[in-house]
From TrEMBL:
Domain Glycosyl hydrolase family 13 catalytic, chain residue ranges per copy: 14-401
TM region(s), chain numbering: none
Keyword Hydrolase: yes
Native source organism of the sequence: Roseivivax halotolerans
Molecular function, one GO term: alpha-amylase activity
SMART domains (UniProt xref): Aamy
InterPro entries to which the protein is assigned, alphabetical: GH (IPR017853), GH13_cat_dom (IPR006047), Glyco_hydro_b (IPR013780), O16G_dom_2 (IPR045857)
Any one GO BP annotation for this protein: oligosaccharide catabolic process
Protein name: Alpha-glucosidase
Family membership: Belongs to the glycosyl hydrolase 13 family.
Keyword Protease recorded: no
Record keywords, A-Z: Glycosidase, Hydrolase
Length: 537
């Protein structure tokens, strides 16, 4: 019988196509490259792959600006190549999630070209158009995530249009029923082509406030002095109105109904610094909504301490107990966590194990399995428009988007025979896949073992998570289902630590992950970054 719950507790591997594997020497990764490297992905033991956008696009935001949702950009290949990719994944038992960017299109999408041509054409209301204020300024104070006003003047319609991201990414108007229908058709197109689900970009931006009310400024004490205003004044506004409208759920319900017919699943990206977990709960709390919500709490700048993680899960319990999170430490938008949190390899391993013990689904970003640090990208090599705008206060997202390193011998790390669109980091070469394959102590093997550990314990995948607490630097919690109860402890520190076992009899497991067992004094003596994994007997 079909497993409708396959997504619950699944391990997802994120591929950024531009930087995974180039097969035709143009310096840009492509779909056939992903198909060719599918055995590597499968070797990790993951359940699914999420592929960042490969649709037709002018690439102003590297594919997150789509000009044709139902075709492949020639830079990445063709629809036939996509069929090859799906077949290669399915042969290896891997589900394929594609990245649907439905909140906005590219300004070059035919829908937008038509919409901007006049105020009375059939797609006139497909985007968010509004008149200027009497003094000619934008309709309200909404800001773009990528800097400046979220409104762009259009001289043909003599109106402003809304863009939450780049001005080349106009926001679709979800209040228009035909827009929703058109987007559901896009989803169906790909489901019919065999995809197993979606990563949904910025789902809390779908519906805007119809009344276009001003966002209140954030109270001074809640402002983040590091991120604003030099980096982005966006973080100094309380985004009450420009995103997260209740009608978002109506659209998600329609999408869910469609996905059910295909046994597909979706992970929605909820980006909200202020109410992230609450929204996660609202969007995933029912079986008529989306399946998983991508959580930002472990993508934050500071290394999560034991007490921080315990607080996060207390909050999950309070506002999202019925919801389902998808946890990630790294992705294509933030500096790689090995650098962001200044981890040693031991720290990286410890967090890798911790992630696979958490309740929720989990998401790895390409290169994470190699323990890659953030790459240094010089200003001259910068590609990310976000980085170009805020350099040097914010260096943009290119440092996590440099090409994968497959072989150390080749100067482009086996990524491309041509000149890569972003330079391969020389610092990365000694961590290339073939190097680590030969070294049993390498981090790559640790990732495989951590994922295998999760898959060998149903309680880790789907069980309850209870008694989470911080004992100094040690994070402690239990995972349980009807068959087994596990106790997990992680010493998130460069210093050793001691912690007690819970009541009862426990047997040490996870030795292959460096798990500690009870010492003669009955307590757990943990080395720096050491876990203790035990099963109730
Ligand atoms: O990212 C949305 C995004 O920028 C969030 O991570 C944001 O930082 C957060 O909502 C702030 O609270 C997605 C894609 O991942 C990114 O690559 C795109 O540039 C963006 O959407 C626009 O499509
Ligand atoms: Ca290529």
């Amino acid at each position: 019988k079909t497993d409708t719950d396959w997504w619950r507790g699944a391990v997802i591997y994120q591929v950024y196509p531009r930087s995974f594997q180039d097969t035709n020497g143009d310096g840009i990764g492509d779909l056939l490259g992903i198909a060719q490297r599918m055995p590597h992905i499968a070797s990790l033991g993951v359940d699914a792959v999420w592929i960042s956008p490969f649709f037709t696009s002018p690439m102003k935001d590297f594919g997150y600006d789509v000009s044709d949702y139902c075709d492949v950009d020639p830079m990445f290949g063709s629809l036939a190549d996509f069929d090859v990719l799906i077949a290669s994944a399915h042969r290896l038992g891997i589900k394929v999630l594609i990245d649907l960017v439905l909140s906005h299109t590219s300004e070059e999408h035919s829908w937008f070209k038509e919409s901007r041509a006049s105020r009375d054409n059939r797609r006139a209301n497909w985007y968010v158009w509004a008149d200027a204020k009497p003094d000619g300024t934008p309709p309200n104070n909404w800001l773009s995530i990528f800097g400046g006003s979220a409104w762009q003047w259009d001289s043909t319609r003599c109106q402003y249009y809304l863009h939450n991201f780049l001005q080349e990414q106009p926001d679709l108007n979800f209040h228009e029923p035909d827009v929703q229908t058109a987007l559901l058709e896009v989803a169906q197109f790909w489901l019919d082509r065999g995809v197993d689900g979606f990563r949904l970009d910025t789902i809390n931006f779908y519906v805007h406030d119809k009344q276009l009310r001003d966002n209140p400024p954030l109270p001074e004490e809640e402002r983040n002095p590091i991120t604003a205003p030099a980096v982005n004044p966006y973080t100094w506004q309380n985004h009450l109105y420009d995103k997260t409208q209740p009608e978002n759920l109506d659209f998600l319900r329609k999408l869910r109904t469609l996905m059910n017919d295909y046994n597909a699943a979706a992970v929605g990206e909820v980006g909200d610094d202020q109410r992230g977990l609450e929204i996660l709960g609202q969007y995933t709390g029912g079986d008529d909504l989306i399946h998983m919500s991508y959580a930002f709490e472990l993508l934050s700048g500071h290394m999560p301490t034991a007490s921080y993680i315990a607080d996060v899960f207390e909050k999950v319990e309070a506002v999202a107990a019925q919801g389902w999170a998808c946890w990630a430490f790294s992705n294509h938008d933030v500096p790689r966590h090995a650098s962001r949190w200044q981890l040693s390899d031991a720290g990286t391993r410890c967090f890798a194990t911790l992630m696979q013990c958490l309740r929720g689904s989990t998401c790895l970003y390409q290169g994470e399995e190699l323990g890659l640090p953030e790459a240094d990208v010089a200003f001259e090599d910068l590609q990310d428009p976000y980085g170009k705008r805020f350099w040097p206060a914010f260096k943009g997202r290119d440092g996590c988007r440099t090409p994968m390193v497959w072989e150390p011998s080749n100067q482009n790390g086996g990524f491309s025979s041509g000149s890569p669109w972003l330079p391969v980091s020389h610092e990365h070469l000694n961590r290339a896949v073939t190097n680590q394959e030969q070294d049993p102590a390498a981090i790559l093997h640790h990732y495989r073992r951590a994922i295998a550990f999760r898959h060998s314990h149903e309680a880790l995948r789907k069980g309850a998570q209870t008694d989470m607490s911080a004992d100094g630097t040690v994070l402690r919690f239990q995972r349980a289902n009807e068959e087994e109860t596990l106790f997990c402890a992680f010493n998130l520190s460069f210093e050793p630590a001691v912690t007690d076992l819970p009541e009862g009899k426990w047997r040490q497991i996870g030795i292959e992950l460096g798990s500690a067992g009870p010492a003669p004094d009955g307590r757990l003596h943990l080395g720096p970054w050491q876990p203790a994994l035990l099963m109730r007997v």
